Automatic annotation (TrEMBL), chain A:
The UniProt record lists the keyword Transmembrane: yes
Membrane topology: Multi-pass membrane protein
Ranges of residues in domain Na+/H+ antiporter MnhB subunit-related protein: 126-243
Keyword Methyltransferase tagged: no
Domain called MrpA C-terminal/MbhE: residue spans: 62-106
Family: Belongs to the CPA3 antiporters (TC 2.A.63) subunit B family.
Native species: Halanaerobium kushneri
Transmembrane segments: 94-111, 123-147, 153-172, 184-202, 222-241
Subcellular location(s) of the protein: Cell membrane
UniProt protein name: Membrane bound protein complex subunit mbxF
Record keywords, A-Z: Cell membrane, Membrane, Transmembrane, Transmembrane helix
TrEMBL record, chain B:
Residue spans crossing the bilayer: 6-24, 31-52, 72-94, 106-123, 129-146, 158-178, 198-222, 234-255, 267-285, 292-311, 323-341, 362-383, 398-416, 436-454
Major localization class: membrane
Signal peptide residues on this chain, from the entry's feature table: none
Protein name: Membrane bound protein complex subunit mbxH
Family: Belongs to the CPA3 antiporters (TC 2.A.63) subunit D family.
GO terms for cellular component: plasma membrane
All copies of domain NADH:quinone oxidoreductase/Mrp antiporter transmembrane, residue ranges: 124-410
Topological relation to the membrane, as annotated: Multi-pass membrane protein
UniProtKB/TrEMBL annotation, chain C:
Domain of life of the organism encoding this protein: Bacteria
Subcellular localization, as worded in the UniProt entry: Cell membrane
Keyword Transmembrane helix: yes
Alphabetic keyword roster: Cell membrane, Membrane, Transmembrane, Transmembrane helix
Origin organism lineage: Bacteria, Bacillati, Bacillota, Clostridia, Halanaerobiales
Keyword Ligase: no
Pfam families in alphabetical order: Oxidored_q2
Official protein name in the record: Membrane bound protein complex subunit mbxG
Membrane topology qualifier: Multi-pass membrane protein
Family membership noted in the UniProt record: Belongs to the CPA3 antiporters (TC 2.A.63) subunit C family.
Residue ranges crossing the lipid bilayer per the database entry: 6-27, 34-55, 81-105
TrEMBL record, chain D:
Transmembrane annotation, as ranges: 6-21, 28-46, 66-91, 103-122, 128-146, 158-178, 198-223, 235-256, 276-297, 304-323, 335-355, 367-388, 408-428, 449-470, 503-524, 603-620
Domain named NADH:quinone oxidoreductase/Mrp antiporter transmembrane: residues: 122-420
Domain of life: Bacteria
PANTHER family referenced in this protein's UniProt entry, alphabetically: FORMATE HYDROGENLYASE SUBUNIT 3-RELATED, HYDROGENASE-4 COMPONENT F
Organism listed in the record: Halanaerobium kushneri
GO biological process, one term: ATP synthesis coupled electron transport
GO molecular function, one term: oxidoreductase activity
Subcellular location: Cell membrane; Membrane
The keyword Cell membrane belongs to this UniProt entry's keyword annotation: yes
Keywords: Cell membrane, Membrane, Oxidoreductase, Transmembrane, Transmembrane helix
Protein's name in the database: NADH-quinone oxidoreductase subunit M
InterPro entries given in the database record: ComplexI-like_HydComp, NADH_UbQ_OxRdtase, ND/Mrp_TM
UniProt membrane topology term: Multi-pass membrane protein
Length: 253, 483, 121, 621
């Protein structure tokens, strides 16, 4: 082992040790510290307000498929956090992905590569045929995931990723398969505009950016959650298009 | 009064639409970028008097203030947002004369770096701060790569260092959330006193590293010179004029409002002082003019951090004024240097000799900005230098004062070398055609003289911003008051 | 022993992941490996975030036909939402990094970062 | 309004700059007009020592008063500035025809005039500092505009030394401001007297740093030679004549108005003089000696005169430092006289440069026949510089000698005498090599300078003789200054000054000299004339002489004398400063190579290392 690596190991180990110390703190009376593993105290956290859906309204018992017109209509509480309580973060998050897609496109296309890549050739019959079968199924699965984002685990990102995977497989199998750059761009832009547009509409009608302006329905129903489903659909299209775009750029580079 | 969310929302909308604008008309993206930044400035101006009265809190998504994400725009955030959007506006004017390949992507990234930095200074939520830092840095990674050639290397280095920074920051966020149970800055600040000291120490250090990378603190700043050297001029300008200002803001917010403790400020003080003197010493060595400006930026950042972390009101005010000046001056320096570089076809200082008689506007801009940084009377740098020395002596920091002045002398040495080369040496190279930068130079020069002769212009915002930073109680009260 | 493992495998494991990642970034010369190390660190932090919100024997924060009301014990949904964001950001950075690596490899014909020092001093 | 005196030149500067772009002569004409206006309106100000003006400003939470006032001391300096500016501006109307930077010259020159008046009218540190910086910066550009490549380096050294000193000044001033709440000199003096002497002395020494630099006093004199030698030829007279003096003005302010002398009154003394004052006098003496020796070695006429300026500054410092009435009056006299004869010398040299285009003395010779008026001006001025009656230079030196002998400062007196005698050596060198000797073939067709350039030289010759005969004119204002500063006055009449060991009567001496001159003139007119023969018409052991130049001995004129000081001169102070900066640079270089080596992995390591170190620091504390 080289000396430099040894030194690095020591330093990093000391760092890890210091971080580890944070978990072993025994707090004095009145002090607060990190909760022990498995003993997270939700009652003191903002999370409890999200679970009880009483950020803006009074606390009341929420019952699956019964309670309706809650402040956030999603049965999946993580979804209500992602697409409702903290939707501003989510907007930022898809922006990050959007920027990365733009950045990747720039980096790979700015200067023509001097090296020749391996020549693409047709994939095997098995792969080709398999993907022909699996492609629509993947699209369907993706759609299911983002449409049911407020009811079950999943959501816009996951659905978008599955859709992008479908296109990735398609591109792997068929080297002649090409999606028009223009159409990807249009989907990407349109989905983004819809998301920001929803926010601005909320701002105009309700006075606050990204505020929910649709009825929230009954918890657990498919048509519930207000804007969540719309937002998730936009996200899914955007993420799907962006990831496809990234994959496309990387393949074509 | 116009809702301040628009400062982030409109650039977002515009950058999402930018590819479509490009399809409509080739020239549209640069115009849209200019209009958007101008719109942002208008929104800020419309809110000016209200914010000077009392800070504005914007609840996003209609959720009650401390419980979900909210924006907090006090005098300090307003000042920083003005800086950021003003820088972007000036650079957008400059960009009108530039031609970029993939200009839709360039302008959408440019708008997003502005919106990201504005978000950094306006947000009242810890994790949201992280998201905006990431938006800003990813836009910066991509924009850096726009120059091709060596810029990939610069971008990759920044990306890796930035990645490490974001890990540190996320760790800090996790610890804070687990202990406090909230991500709202005001709520964290309110219970910061209860946090176990060891945990507080570790968390604060994690944030120090995470945000220190954006604020260009030594020794986390070695990506800066590479980036400033290789990136296109407008990007160097926005990085040093706007993003580093946002970095300083985030640092100040965390160590004044969130975890106000003298020991952390002392760390910052020493780091800032080291950054200052090291930056100046290295800048003096440089043969490459952009690299020289980059190290000079580092040094200035160090100076600002050191002065602000003295923690007295006068010192904070001096540091903030220096921040404002630095943004104005560095942008002018970068765009003038950009024109000089393209006229000479080289970044080497020796090749710029004699350009003063050929590229008059650029050489004038460079000279005025250099003199501003060096603190010539009647220019804005003089006032801030006076305030800095005064406040650092007031805090009994004799050694720091001497160090600042020593650094100023080194600064004189290397800036004047360039100025002399520009005007008093014979032309050596063939001068190439370059962009016209009269409008930005005139605007920035007016600002330099305006702030130098009548600094009262921003006395009130500075005073309120400093007061806001010093007293974190008012921040907490404003956000949590409704509870 | 089992108790200890249960208590520390998440925190300890995530710290270990961060340690490995950091060590990789500092010592590896291959740019791809550096990016992998970054991804490892990201994973470590994400794991830690989720672990910080874990409540023993509680449900996933989703109301369904089994967990009918919100009076039941749930794990903390906020870290999960944060992790979702942080994963996407990590992916974005990773993708951009890989694109840069492709271009750098084009230019220098090497993946060894210690040989790519066109920018220094 | 005192501000008029400051801001009219500064405003005119920009007008001059713009107009000069259209017409090469416009700038100099405007400069001359503005200076004339200043001189006229300043004369109207004479005797009205009660005029003050102040501005209150609440700047960023600091309450600041800007104070301006006029007193005899500042009035004298303002008048000197305006007067010399008129002459230089007149001179430069013609001489700047081919000057590339003539617009820049006039812009900066007018700003300098305004800021110098600002400096002398300032009654508080901040006003002083602002105008001081303005003057420093503009003169930096002026020096840079010099013709040679060395001008840039010289300006560079100048600005770095000046700026470093000025920042130190600012720091001390702000320190005082924080104690007293005001920048005004009066309250500062009160504070300094009441404060602990050690701290006050430290503060005042720091405050005097920029003045020491500007006055070119050893050991901060290294910028003077190159700056004066390489500045544009029209600026050298101002630089040497006036800007060195503004340093002296600052010293007087520190010594008297900020009560430096009062504070050190009771410290250890040598022959009744506090040791610190003696130290300053000693610095003056060292300055005289080094300046003189280095001047003798110079081959470049402008650099030679520059070193002579350094050594003349030494006299002024000695006189002020010993703080006797005679010493002070002598210094003030010498200050005025040095301005007059040094400007004359520089203008004469500028005329020579204007015609020949070179400053190397061994490239010239025999110009006396081609440029008689220039020669006359130069001759008169060097007679004054060497201190020969009946010129003004003698009187001021005489008064200083009187002061030194009165108190019995042996070493200082020796240095002063050495400087006076040796100055003869160096001023004779240009006289002999430039004006006398053989005319170089390439200078055969040279003509005398145009009328507008002659006028300033003529005026200066007259003034030299005038003050040589009637020093009472100068003593009038000097005694007013002494009275203002609280120094005893010296008895004088229009043409005599009362020294310690007797009185000087210049009228008598002038009459004697005139008589001698007339006798000599008579002898010269009636006695047998020498015959003019051609240079090559001579006998030399059968060899034919073909090369006239080898008969003109101009290079390394004082070689045997130089050899005495070769060792001393080799250890130049400039080298010391250069080694210092080189080491500083090298340390930066080392850091740069070690830290920013382009290794990404190291950069990553730094971040972890910083965390670990800060955590360790936190642990220990």
């Amino acid at each position: 082992m080289k000396f430099r690596n040894f030194l690095a190991l020591i330093i990093v180990a000391v760092f890890a040790f210091i971080i580890f110390q944070a978990f072993t703190i025994v707090p004095a009376a009145g002090e607060i510290t990190i909760n022990k593993f498995g003993q997270a105290d939700l009652s003191n956290r903002t999370a409890s307000r999200y679970i009880n859906k009483n950020v803006n309204s009074d606390s009341k018992k929420v019952i699956y498929k019964e309670s309706s017109n809650l402040e956030s209509g999603s049965a999946n509480i993580v979804t209500s956090v992602v697409a409702n309580y903290r939707s501003f973060d989510t907007l930022g998050e898809i922006t990050v992905l959007f920027l990365a897609a733009a950045g990747i496109a720039i980096v790979l296309n700015l200067e023509k590569s001097e090296k020749s890549r391996f020549a693409a050739k047709e994939a095997s019959l098995i792969l080709n045929t398999g993907i022909k079968i699996i492609f629509p199924l993947l699209l369907l699965a993706g759609a299911y995931i983002f449409i049911h984002g407020h009811l079950s685990p999943g959501g816009g990102f996951q659905g978008g990723a599955v859709i992008a995977t479908a296109f990735l497989l398609k591109m792997l199998a068929d080297y002649k398969f090409e999606i028009k750059e223009k159409s990807i761009t249009l989907v990407e832009s349109a989905a983004g505009i819809v998301f920001v547009g929803l926010g601005l509409y909320g701002l105009i009608t309700r006075g606050s950016f990204l505020e929910n302006f649709l009825a929230t329905g009954t918890v657990g129903e498919l048509f519930s959650g207000g804007t969540i489903a719309v937002i998730y659909t936009a996200i899914a299209f955007k993420v799907g298009a962006e990831l496809t775009n990234i994959v496309k750029s990387l393949i074509e580079a | 009064m116009v809702n301040l969310t628009l400062i982030i929302a409109i650039p977002l909308l515009m950058s999402f639409t930018m590819p479509i604008f490009k399809m409509l008309n080739q020239k549209l993206p640069k115009v849209i970028a200019l209009l958007t930044t101008a719109f942002n400035l208008l929104v800020l101006t419309a809110n000016f008097s209200q914010i000077m009265d009392s800070a504005i809190i914007i609840e996003l998504g209609g959720w009650q203030a401390p419980l979900a994400i909210n924006l907090y725009v006090g005098p300090l955030a307003l000042l920083a947002a003005f800086l950021i959007n003003g820088s972007a506006f000036i650079l957008s004017i400059y960009n009108l004369t530039q031609d970029y390949k993939f200009d839709d992507k360039f302008y959408l990234l440019f708008l997003m770096i502005t919106a990201g930095a504005s978000g950094m200074v306006m947000t009242g939520d810890l994790f949201n701060l992280f998201v905006f830092i990431e938006i800003t840095s990813i836009a910066a990674y991509s924009l850096t790569a726009f120059a091709g050639r060596d810029s990939y290397e610069a971008s990759f280095k920044y990306l890796v260092i930035g990645g490490i920074g974001s890990v540190f920051m996320l760790l800090g966020i996790g610890f804070t959330y687990s202990a406090v149970g909230s991500l709202n800055l005001a709520e964290i600040a309110a219970s910061a006193g209860l946090i176990n000291p060891l945990l507080l120490q570790i968390t604060a250090l994690l944030f120090l590293i995470g945000v220190g990378i954006e604020a260009e603190l030594f020794p986390l700043n070695f990506w800066v010179p590479d980036l400033y050297t290789e990136a296109p001029t407008a990007v160097s300008g926005i990085m040093s004029g706007a993003v580093s200002a946002a970095g300083i803001y985030a640092l100040a917010r965390i160590f004044f409002t969130l975890f106000p403790a003298q020991s952390f400020l002392n760390y910052l003080l020493y780091l800032g002082a080291i950054t200052l003197i090291l930056g100046e010493l290295i800048a003096y060595q440089q043969k490459n003019i952009k690299r020289m400006l980059a190290y000079s930026s580092l040094a200035q950042m160090g100076l600002i951090v050191a002065v602000i972390s003295l923690g007295t009101e006068g010192a904070v005010r001096a540091g903030l004024f220096q921040l404002v000046n630095h943004s104005i001056l560095k942008i002018l320096l970068f765009i003038s240097a950009g024109v000089l570089i393209s006229a000479a076809g080289s970044k080497n200082i020796d090749d710029l000799a004699g350009l003063g008689s050929k590229k008059k506007t650029a050489a004038f801009g460079f000279t005025i900005a250099a003199m501003g940084i060096l603190g010539v009377p009647f220019l804005n740098g003089f006032i801030s230098k006076f305030m800095i020395i005064s406040s650092s002596l007031n805090a009994d920091q004799f050694l720091l004062t001497v160090l600042i002045l020593l650094a100023a002398v080194i600064e004189i040495a290397y800036y004047l070398k360039v100025v002399q080369k520009l005007y008093f040496e014979d032309l050596k190279i063939e001068v190439k055609k370059t962009a016209v930068i009269t409008i930005p130079v005139v605007l920035l020069t007016l600002m330099i003289f305006g702030l130098g002769i009548y600094p009262q212009l921003i006395a009130d915002p500075l005073e309120k911003a400093a007061a806001e930073l010093i007293n974190n109680g008012s921040y907490i009260m404003t956000v949590l008051g409704g509870m | 022993m089992l108790n200890f493992l249960e208590e520390w495998s998440f925190f300890g494991g995530s710290i270990l992941l961060i340690l490995i990642g950091l060590y990789g970034v500092i010592t590896r010369k291959n740019m791809i490996k550096i990016l992998i190390s970054l991804a490892l660190m990201d994973t470590g932090v994400n794991l830690m975030l989720v672990a910080l919100g874990y409540v023993k024997a509680a449900n996933a924060p989703i109301l369904n036909s089994v967990v009918q009301t919100n009076t039941a014990a749930f794990v903390d949904p906020i870290p999960q939402a944060l992790v979702l964001t942080s994963i996407v950001i990590g992916t974005a950075v990773l993708g951009l990094g890989l694109a840069l690596v492709i271009k750098i490899y084009d230019k220098f014909s090497t993946l060894d970062i210690s040989k790519i020092r066109g920018l220094k001093w | 309004m005192l501000t008029n005196y400051i801001f009219i030149p500064i405003a005119a500067a920009f007008i001059a700059y713009i107009l000069n772009k259209r017409n090469r002569k416009a700038g100099a004409v405007i400069t001359a007009l503005v200076s004339a206006y200043l001189l006229l309106s300043l004369t109207a100000l004479y005797g009205r020592w009660d005029i003050t003006q102040s501005f209150n400003l609440s700047l960023m939470g600091y309450k600041i008063d800007f104070l301006l006032a006029v007193n005899p001391l500042s009035w004298l300096f303002a008048v000197m500035t305006a007067a010399i500016s008129i002459l230089i501006a007149l001179f430069s109307i013609n001489s700047q025809e081919n000057f590339k930077f003539s617009s820049v010259f006039n812009l900066n020159f007018l700003i300098i005039i305004g800021s110098m008046i600002g400096i002398v009218f300032a009654r508080d540190f901040l006003t002083l500092f602002i105008f001081w910086e303005l003057m420093t910066w503009t003169s930096f550009y002026l020096i840079s505009a010099g013709k040679k490549k060395m001008a840039g380096r010289a300006a560079y050294r100048y600005i770095i030394l000046s700026a470093g000193a000025a920042y130190a000044f600012l720091m001390a001033a702000i320190f005082i401001f924080q104690q007293t709440g005001s920048f005004a000199f009066d309250s500062a003096a009160e504070f300094l007297v009441a404060n602990s002497p050690a701290q006050s002395i430290m503060l005042l020494l720091v405050i005097s740093l920029p003045f020491i630099v500007k006055a070119g006093i050893f050991p901060l004199h290294i910028w003077v030679k190159d700056a004066h030698g390489n500045a544009p030829k029209e600026f050298s007279p101002f630089l040497s004549g006036m800007m060195l003096k503004i340093g002296i003005y600052g010293m007087i302010v520190v010594f008297y108005q900020l009560s430096f002398f009062k504070i050190i009154e009771n410290t250890i003394a040598y022959r009744g003089l506090p040791l610190l004052s003696y130290l300053f006098a000693l610095l003056g003496a060292v300055t005289i000696i080094t300046g003189t020796i280095l001047a003798i070695r110079q081959e470049d006429m402008k650099k030679l005169v520059a070193y002579s300026s350094i050594s003349q500054m030494g006299y002024i410092i000695i006189g002020i430092a010993i703080a006797t009435p005679l010493g002070f009056s002598g210094s003030m006299l010498h200050l005025m006289n040095h301005l007059i004869f040094k400007s004359t010398i520089f203008l004469a040299l500028a005329a020579v440069i204007y015609r020949t285009g070179t400053t190397k003395m061994y490239e010239m010779g025999g110009l006396i026949f081609r440029m008689p008026l220039t020669f006359a001006a130069y001759l008169t001025a060097i007679i004054a510089l060497a201190g020969i009656p009946p010129t003004n230079g003698f009187i001021s030196k005489w008064v200083i000698y009187q002061a030194l002998i009165e108190k019995g400062y042996l070493f200082l007196a020796i240095a002063a005498f050495f400087g006076s005698i040796a100055s003869f050596m160096y001023v004779f060198k240009p006289l002999s090599t430039v004006f006398l000797g053989q005319l170089k073939p390439q200078h055969q067709n040279i003509k005398e300078v145009p009328l507008l350039m002659k006028i300033p030289m003529l005026i200066l010759i007259l003034v030299i003789v005038l003050f040589g005969v009637f020093p009472g004119i100068q003593m009038n204002i000097i005694n007013q200054i002494s009275g203002y500063l609280g120094i005893e006055t010296v008895n004088y009449t229009l043409y005599s000054i009362q020294g310690a060991n007797g009185a000087w009567n210049s009228l008598l001496i002038f009459n004697i000299f005139s008589a001698g001159f007339i006798i000599a003139l008579l002898l010269f007119s009636f006695a047998k004339k020498s015959k003019l023969v051609g240079l090559l018409d001579t006998y030399s052991s059968g060899e034919y002489i073909t090369d006239a130049e080898s008969y003109h001995y101009a290079y390394q004129y004082y070689r045997p004398f130089d050899r005495l000081f070769d060792n001393l001169a080799a250890k130049s102070l400039t080298d010391f400063y250069e080694t210092l900066t080189k080491n500083l640079v090298r340390s930066g270089e080392g850091l740069r190579r070690a830290l920013a080596a382009g290794k990404l992995q190291n950069y990553a390591l730094y971040s972890v290392l910083l965390f670990v170190i800060l955590a360790a620091v936190g642990w220990i504390i």
